[in-house]
Each structure stands twice: as C-alpha cells, then as structure tokens.
Amino acid sequence: MTAPLNDNNENNGYDSIRRSYRRMFFYQIWVRSFFDGDGDGVGDLKGVYEKLGYIRSLGIDAIWLCPVYPSPNADYGYDISDYTAIHPDFGTLRDMKMVLDRAHELGMKVIMDLVVNHTSDEHPWFTESRKSRDNPYSDYYIWRDEPNNWDSLFEGKAWKYDPGRGQYYLHIFSEKQPDLNMDNPEVRSEVKKIMRFWLDMGVDGFREDVINFISKREDLPDGLPFVPAVNGMFAYKDGPHIHEYLSEFRKVCEEYDCIQIGEGPMTTLKNALTYLSGKNKTLDMMFSFDHMMADCIYTEYIHRPFSLRKLKRAFSKWQYGLGGKAWNALYLENHDHPRVISRYGSERFRNESGKMLAAAYIFQQGTPFIYQGQEIGMTNIRLRDINDYKDISSKTNFHKYHIRDTLEKRMHRIHLSSRDSARTPMQWSGERYAGFSAVRPWFCVNPNYKTVNVAAQEDDPDSILNFYRRCIALKKHSKVLTYGSYREFFPRSREIFMYERVYKGMQRLVICSFSKRFTQVTLPKKYADRPRRLLLCNYAADSRDDMLFRPYEVRVYSFPRSNTDND
Ligand code: NOJ
C-alpha cells in the first residue's frame, strides 16, 4: 500500500535532480500571493519558509519559485531590475538562503525563474543603453531606426520610440520590458553569470521564461497578420541561433546538478523535440501551450466554448509526440491562466471536477506541476470593476480589444480570461483574509475562502487536497504510471477522456468524465472482460460495479494478471 509522504519524511528526496526529475512532483509558488510571513499584506520568502512543511506533506519533491528579484512590477516580477538580489517586498538574500536550506533538508529541490528575454526598463543596463548609441550597453537591447509591424503581447505595437536615443526599442511584452539583444555575446555572458550566481547559492535549476523567443531573426521581418494582437508572433519565436545560445547556457548547468525547464509559447512539437532530445538537447522539459487553448485562441482574447475534443487532441499530441523521445512537463494551471475548474471543469461540481482534472493530467507521462491553490480547487475571481484588476494583460484586454462590446460583455471576458484569477491570495483558512495575512492583502481574496481553504480540507479525508495527496502517492509509487507508454481510447467522445498506461505488461486505465450528467462508459475491448481493480475514484465507494459514471467521475483501474501484480 502507498503511504502519503509527510513533513517527517526529512531527507527522503532524491539526490540528483537531473537523474530523478522524471519521478518528481513540482509545486509552483507565485510568492506575492502565497503566504505573508512579515505582516505587510504581501506574500514573501518568510511565508514560503513557513509553509515548506505543508508543501512537503503533499508529496512534493521540488518547488518552482516565480521571480523574486527586484522589479517595478509592471508585470509582477517578470520585469527584472536586478538579477542578483531579492525584491524588498519578498525579503533578503538571507531569506532566500534559508528557504533553500530548509527545502533541501526536507528533501525538496528549488528552481527559480530565469527571465532573460527582456529586463525591466528600470534595469541599469537599459537606463544606460537608452542614453546614446555608443555606450558600453548600447547594444544590450534591440534598437532600430524604423519599427517593423510586430505587435507586443501586452500593449499594442512591439516598438517604442525613445526620444533620448532617437530610436525605437523592441518590447515583445509591455513597454516596460525591453527585449535583450541575445546576439550580443556580452549579454549571453551576463546571463551565464546570473545562472552561476544562483546555482552557487544552491538553486537546483531554472524555469526559463519564454526561452524560445530569445533569438530573433536578424532581419526582423514583418509578421503575417494572423490574429489581432499577435501580429509577428510567429516571426520571433524559435529563431536561428536559439540552439547555439541555449547550449551555452546548458554548459553552465552541466557543471552543476541542475535542470532546465523552458517555457515554449507557441512552439511546435517538432521544434520542442529539437530542444528536448538529440545531440542539441538543451532543455530537460518544456511547457507547451496547446492544451491551454481548449476554450480560447492564443492569447485568451478570443474565447470559445470549452471543447473536450480539443483538450484531448492537445494532450495526446504531446503524449504521443514526446513519448519515448523526450519528457513532458504536465500542468493545468500556473500564474498566467485562469483557474482550471472555472475553465474545463464546473464550479457547481467544484469538488468532483477539481479531483477529476487532477487525475486527468497527473497520470499522463511526464512530470506534474501543481500551482498554488490548485490543490484545494481555487476558482476564478469576478471583480466588478476593471480598476480592481492588477494584471497588465487584463487591462489591455479590456481597454484595447472588443471595445464596442457592452461593459457587461467586456467584463465577462475579463472574468473568463484574467491572469489575476490565479493570483489572488492563497486560501489557507476561513479566518479573515483567508489566513494569508493578518492585514489587508495587496490583492482581493476570493470570497469563497470561507469554504475553499486548506484548513478545512486538511480535516476532510474526501477533500480535493487529500485527493491530490492520493494521486501524488499513487503515481510516485507506480512504475506504470511514471514510465508507462500512453494510449488514448475513444478520442471522438465528447464526454469521456480515457487513456491507458502500459509498462512491462502492467496496465492502468484512467477514465475521466467531463460531463455534468450521468454517462455510460464502454471499456475498450481488450479490457472489457478482464478482472479489474479500482485504484482511485473521486466518489465514495459504490456497490455497483457498472460503468455508469457520475458527473465528473474519474476512475483509475489496474488489471492484475495475478495477485502479485501490485506494481
Ligand atoms: C511568461 C510568464 O509566465 C508571464 O507571467 C510573463 O508575463 C511573460 N512570460 C513575460 O515575461
């Protein structure tokens, strides 16, 4: 029988992250909203330190810390003004070291965000660069006399005129995030210094922000107009020198025991394989985006009803595509997407759909990432006034697109798409401010905190939280669910997502209902007449063993060949 790991399991993690990341579970922390350790309403590293035991108790092996560097917060930490310090809101380098040491003692690794496609416009490199065309930093960024037609992802056109320098600079994200010129060897050498700084301090790897954007085509060609707001997007990804640059960074990592996980917006499967396998392998895993578009197109500006078939197609594309060749990073939530229950599940069936979604992705082949609050089934927030939102892309979405729509429709779009839904304070308890802080937090708490919170779920064996623990324990103790091959059944079904994992003759079948109604499930022929054992289900045991699935029911079966087939 598998037992959940707990806080007492000190030092039982894996020694080498590079050797064992395939068996690991990661937990992502967006620090500002995780836990306020010093009573100022803002989450911080002291808060992370205090909650490390909780994280470990889930069975987590590694933490991904979103940017904790000094930043003017135009993009909440993804606009960095100093790469080798800690934002005063979050604490000090000493606090960071304490988090690292304690996490390591508990058997967990820690990876950090490495954001080097751009800096803040308040980074000293940029303040120098914009001064003139001939200073030591003049070539650190991408300057042109004439802009091309690219759109930025956050704020209108991708070029901004700088009167001081008399030229335009490129910013693929906000105006306050000028793109670095990675073609300049000095910039690459700065990146390597930054990596060493954190690796020397004890960090175990990096999540590399929009890493497939860092090499741009030298001629910066106009993009083909495709979807409003993403003009050019296809021209600046996966550029000509990307492998060269990434292999320079890889060499640094190879001196340490460290892993690299790239964020790869819009990357194709074919391109992903060039990063993840073969002689040019420069990344261990990559975050792909296809499955994040089962209810929207590209940037979440364009919504469409959730389509299970689209979701399944995306899942299977990456499962088959990387299977046996590379390794998937599995996720359903992070700080850039609304909460998954509100998108692909049902707030009415929050408990059932939250659990079903957990199993639907965790048991695929790959390393699962769980985003703070996902494990208790947090849902989207619906603020009435756009001014209450903080995220720059939500504001642009509201002010620049579909502006002829009614206010109601425009706000509805924000409710569906805002990244802020993933950035509300973590709901620790039913106390004031959700137990996140003793004082009014920097951002609104989701009003459902009284019922949706960690404390309440700790005490409830049937909670989403404890279901996550069971999923984690089940996968961690199972070679089939970790290494097994993947095959999907009934891809055309609009209600059921079903897949098997097979390893050395052992089989597991994961059946997920995405329906609000009772749904009759047919087993694939190869399993229909075989004795099966139910390993996991999100409903209480039922004497019936029929295949009538309840709303959002999930079941995981094994098909023992003998009494000793326990994996
Ligand atoms: C991806 C990050 O996840 C997102 O939060 C950020 O806004 C952009 N990259 C720009 O750094």
Can you walk through the features of this model?
The chain is α/β, with parallel strands linked by helices and 567 residues long. It has a domain at 17-115 and 186-471: TIM Barrel (Alpha-Beta Barrel). It contains 17 helices and 20 strands. The protein has an eight-stranded parallel sheet with strand order 9-8-7-3-2-1-13-12. It starts with 16 loop residues before the first helix and ends in a 9-residue tail after the last strand. The model is unreliable at 1-11 (pLDDT under 50). The structure holds 1-deoxynojirimycin (NOJ). 1-deoxynojirimycin is lined by residues 75, 78, 115, 173, 209-210, 263, 335-336.
Quick take:
The protein has 567 residues and is α/β, with parallel strands linked by helices. The protein has helices at 17-20, 45-50, 52-57, 93-105, 124-129, 185-201, 242-254, 269-276, 308-322, 340-344, 350-362, 392-400, 407-417, 454-458, 464-476, 479-483, 525-528, and strands at residues 26-29, 62-65, 109-114, 143-144, 159-162, 167-170, 205-208, 259-263, 285-287, 296-297, 302-303, 329-330, 367-371, 485-489, 496-503, 506-513, 519-520, 533-537, 548-549, 554-558. The protein is globular and about 75 Å long.
